[in-house]
Design goal:
Oligomer: single chain
Helix content: 25-40%
Number of helices: 8
Distance between the termini: 32 Å
Shape: globular
Radius of gyration: 19 Å
Strand order of the largest sheet: 2-5-4-3-1-6
Structural class: alpha+beta
């Protein structure tokens, strides 16, 4: 069974959105604690306490985020990252440790490869995912029902039939208001000064026109 996660792109306090998308990976911060592949929970806590002057709450949040990235995420799960009015959906690979970047300056040594599948307007996410995605955390897992296949289709408001059967109120439909809002966002994006954003908006509109 696949799982869906979201991640922010400012790992170690550095905005890495372009790196994530261009170099096909995601990462978390916490340099200085070494390879986490086989580390126990107690060992991880001890290392964090030695290196980072965290409060109890900060330590707890860090342990949860690291555990999620290293152990809860699995090869073949999915990740969403925000990009303004857009989101990018990717297929995750295994955790790996990149020692050359284990420095206070870089801090991007704990990584997972990503195959980016699609980019879509944030307004087109289905209702459950939109509600979850609106609560921005460094890393979190979607806890609602998921389809057993083709999550890349289900994640939009026009959910695949298998996914709509999981709801108690019948198939999820895209109402005209939501569709109009999404199209308006795309039209505004066409006038953006960002060339990449204009190109993505144009592609999305052409796909819709089909």
């Amino acid at each position: 069974m696949m799982n869906l996660f979201q991640m922010t792109t400012n790992a170690h306090g550095i905005e890495r959105k372009r790196e994530f998308l261009n170099d096909n990976f995601v990462c978390i911060g916490w340099p200085g604690i070494g390879d986490l592949t086989n580390i126990s929970a107690d060992e991880l806590q001890n290392k964090l306490e030695q290196i980072y002057p965290y409060s109890e709450a900060e330590l707890s949040a860090s342990l949860a985020a690291i555990h999620c990235f290293v152990h809860t995420m699995q090869d073949g799960d999915y990740v969403l990252v925000a990009d303004g009015d857009w989101v990018h959906l990717g297929d995750l690979g295994d955790y790996f440790y990149y020692e050359v970047f284990d420095t206070p300056e870089e801090g991007k040594c704990h990584r997972r490869g990503v195959t980016w599948l699609k980019s879509l307007p944030r307004a087109t996410l289905n209702a459950g995912v939109q509600k979850w995605f609106a609560v921005s955390e460094p890393i979190s897992q979607y806890k609602g029902p998921l389809p057993s296949a083709r999550l890349d289709l289900w994640v939009t408001a026009g959910a695949a039939p298998e996914a709509t059967q999981l709801t108690e109120k019948g198939p999820v439909q895209v109402d005209e208001g939501t569709l109009a809002e999404a199209l308006n966002i795309l039209k505004q994006a066409l006038r953006s000064e960002d060339v990449e954003r204009r190109e993505r908006a144009a592609i999305a509109l052409l796909n819709y026109a089909k």
